[in-house]
Amino acid sequence: MDSFKRQVIAKYLQNIAAMEQLTKIQDDLATLQKHHALRRQLRRATVAAEIVGIKIGNAALISAPIELLAEVGLRLKQASPYRPTLVAAFSNGYLHYGPPAAYYGKGGYEVTECLLAPEWRQRYEQKANQILRRL
Which of 28, 61, 88, 103 could be cross-linked to 54 through a Cys-Cys bond (beta carbons 3.0 to 4.6 Å apart)? Predict the structure, then answer.
């Protein structure tokens, strides 16, 4: 009886693993369909994004219309001439996640949910740093 129960449990665990894989595939397909619909609505290769900087005393605030991953925000803060520099994510729009280009080949949720080309970071940092220097 013990052997039979072990076989049943092993089969049950295999079924759970298969269901998890199917759920991930369904989620990936739903994300792909959502992104495809958003891109169809845009009908262009680029999207405008507003970046705003505010200086208050020795501090600065710079906006980001995306959810920056920590590496991107830290790099921006280090390059800023102001201490502290705060990054206001989700400001003036929401273009989903903003991972570094090196993350694109690794997959993961943030990359899957990213609507931007890998070059976005360079363009964003260039503009944000330009704004910070002009404050």
Answer: 61
pLDDT recorded at residue 37: 81
Asked whether 53 and 63 are in contact (CB, 8 A), the reply is yes
Cβ neighbours, 10 Å, residue 72: 22
CA 29 to chain centre: 18
Q: Which two tokens stand for residue 13?
A: 């665990």
Q: What is the pLDDT of residue 19?
A: 96
Average pLDDT over residues 11-32: 91
Element (H, E) at 19: helix 2-42
Tokens (6 digits) for 102: 């090196």
55 vs 41 pLDDT, higher one: 55
